[in-house]
Amino acid sequence: MLGCICRCFSISSTYQILSGIAPALDQHRRLMADTGKIASSPLKDPPAMTAETVTETARERYNAAERERHWQSVWEQRETFKASTKNKGPKCYVLEMFPYPSGRIHMGHVRNYALGDVFARHKRSKGFNVLHPMGWDAFGMPAENAAMEKKTHPGKWTYENIAAMKRQLKSMGLSLDWSREFATCDVAYYHQQQRLFLAMYAKGLAYQGVGKVNWDPVDQTVLANEQVIDGRGWRSGAVVEQREMPSWYFRITKYADELLEALNTLDRWPEKVRVMQANWIGRSEGLLMKYQLSGATLPKPKKWSELEVFTTRADTIFGGSFCALSPGHPLTFELAKKNKALQAFIEECGRGGTSAEDLAKAEKLGFDTGIMAAHPLIPDQQIPVYVANFVLMGYGTGAIFGCPAHDQRDYDFAAKYGLKITAVVIPTDENPATYHLPGKSYDGPGAIANSGFLDGMSIDAAKAEVATQLEALKKGKRRTMYRLRDWGLSRQRYWGCPIPIIHCDDCGVQAVPDDQLPVKLPEDVTFDVPGNPLARHPTWKHCACPKCGKPAVRETETMDTFVDSSWYFARFTAPNAATPTDLKSAKYWLPVDQYIGGIEHAILHLLYSRFFARAMIATKHMPSSIKEPFGGLFTQGMVTHETYKSRNGAWLLPGEVRFEGEGDVRRGFEIANGAAVEIGQIEKMSKSKKNLVDPDDIIASYGADCARWFVLSDSPPDRDVIWTEAGVAGASRFIQRVWRLTEESADRAAPVKSPRPATFDAEAIELRRSAHKALNKVAVSIEALRFNVAVAQIYEFASAIQAALPKSGAGHAWALREAAEFLVHMVGPMMPHLGEECWARLGYNTLLADQRWPTVEQALLVDDTITIAVQVNGKRRDELTIARTAANADVEAAALKLEAVVRAMEGKPIRKVIVVPQRIVNVVV
RNA sequence: GCCUUUGUGGCGGAACGGUAGACGCGGCAGACUCAAAAUCUGCUACUCGCAAGGGUGUGGGGGUUCGAGUCCCUCCAGGGGCACCA
């Protein structure tokens, strides 16, 4: 690739940016004057060129790296992409998930932002008023880790990373409105976030409660679930303890039903994500019911005389053979006070792995309390009460009734402890008298049996009957349960948004008054010992109680960084507002019309943002018209690459390997020492596997357009794309091809704004047809985010222009100009720098970015004659070219005359002929 | 285990229930060249056949239909999510 540079002409060293865009012909002239430079090239002497020969022989290659900088600076100076509510056209808010400022962008970013940029640029060209902002999700642990390792301040580290990544993003040529940029660690941003928090606190949407947390005893901090690996802290390796600690929560469960129901309105979200969220919220309809307890071991106070359980299978109540309490149930604790063996059992349940896999494999364990429970509808039927390890305190009431016949967990438990297993739901095709369970529980459909007055009912009818009866007896209540828990937002960390709360011994929990906001992070902190730097800071937490004025202490916890990203999309609509949002701007821009990001955020970030939108409406920081924050969601696939391993087992970077051969005989060798390299699996680009390609390197050697074009080609955007050198080279070739086609077209085409000729010959019409068809398909594909299909259309159309170039005839020059301009329009959203360059080369001194997408002439989208397939008995035998408007009878007659059709009919009589106009003929014999 | 996706040439992938394999990569051949590179033009699912022309093909099996990659049932394989949620 680098070999071609010797033939790249320097075409813009004297190019005038300030005067706008110099006509490309000027470049051409300057180019001619530069030929001397080329002759002195040390590598090879190109043939001497004159203005005449250059057109026909060696045209200059497009120098991407150099031209891209130029167009980026033009866009910047003209503020081309600055959004305003005052601009014309319907609004369109395009947003990609903002990055964490790790310091360098990776190919995943390139793909994400290229996808969004194509969409945003296309919408602009269609006349929309586009908002396309960018910012930084800048709080988080990596900054603290870096501070520990590099003895620096998390803020310094973060802002340096932001500067480096901003430069990289700018080199991609994204149509971003940088004037709205902010980082979530900016005081101005987290100031408003503290206001939001306090508004939610005032409404009861944020509260302090006690809950279980993962506590790392070595690092002295709470860990998020993701930071617990195989029951150990990811940093310290210490066994993580479950601790009850006071924590701050958002009352997301208040909106559980709304968040679930509204999923149905998100018709521009992937089904997959909606299903994942629905499962996460996990609504189930059931019945709360009360069992009367008795037995010598039962504590005397009346509150223990009843046990409330939750079930979704009230229809199986007659099959219940035991009740089970969670080890965390209050009655369990009460009983354990006088029972050493039970204490030991509870401890045993607390051990064991916390990973999902461990839990699934864990054996069912039970402890017989000696207490008996009375069936709420048949009081003389008594069943034993156990404490069981598989009953969760966090769901329902922390107690269940077990029906072994129709629940596998209960079945396992009953089998182990010798409890009765009675089938009460009989599959429809079985005889209740002879039916036996197949050695496991049965949870399919059927009719109720062995259940007294419920016998013969359907499952649903029995559920309803039991609920009605228990409600009448005041022993039951219909209830909807959710799997969703309130969102614990406390983190014992420094680099996050301080929770603006003050604890006073006398007055209790106090909100920091608005005039004392923001609660700023102290600068002078140390990271040399584990624990929360805010908690051990000598002065920061000490303050006066806002109510009584006595000494008090600040909350030293900071907010989960997911809080920061739960409302940033709203802040972008008015990034400098003195309140969290400006309602007018928010109402104009929101919801986000197209949101693009990784599937890994399918649940948490997207659910939290949906909650925040509702909480912000409740606290009047969001117009009530905004029901959902993201109207359209697109989840893009990953960027993957081959992996390479040296003979000693070390991973190698792609740049450390050279290759010989292709396909089956392709071999890799270590450049450093020539040793053979093992070519491994294609995997997600990752630091650990070293299968990384640095966007900076690609942009420097091939240009941003090339990187963009590559990640948009071939693979559908929602699937993984495999990064290959060959693919990059292919993309690079196409860039040169578009440039060459534009040059050659510009030379042969009619001048800018030539009047449309009165007549076109057949070939000119053909070219126009393909131009309008391609333009239409590309627009449709881009709007459907099917960029790989758009790319294929563009390739196809480029070939059509290539074929048409040498033609002449009536209207040809005009049609060629139209075609070349269309090609530039199509390429523009994907390769914007090349687009501008070609636009200038076609003779314009305006910006392509400011041009409207051309209007398609509908008449050119349909052909006069069409070719349709002719089948005999559903098998294609021939094809028929006929006038598009031909009558069915004529089509049928013509089809039946085809030799191949006659032959395939083998002289049999025709039973039926199906003619689908403009599609197909099928002869049935 | 449950939910959810995906399965099409050597590869990435196209295809409102209507000519399967668009387009790209790779490969083969040709043009240009002293030669190479670059570029351009063809061909390229498998299979029988010299050809003309057949046959088979979208993970397997069944079904609906004049017609199925596409719809339905079922099985297999890969990816993702949830995972003792009563």
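qc> DSSP finds 29 helices and 35 strands in chain A.
qc> done
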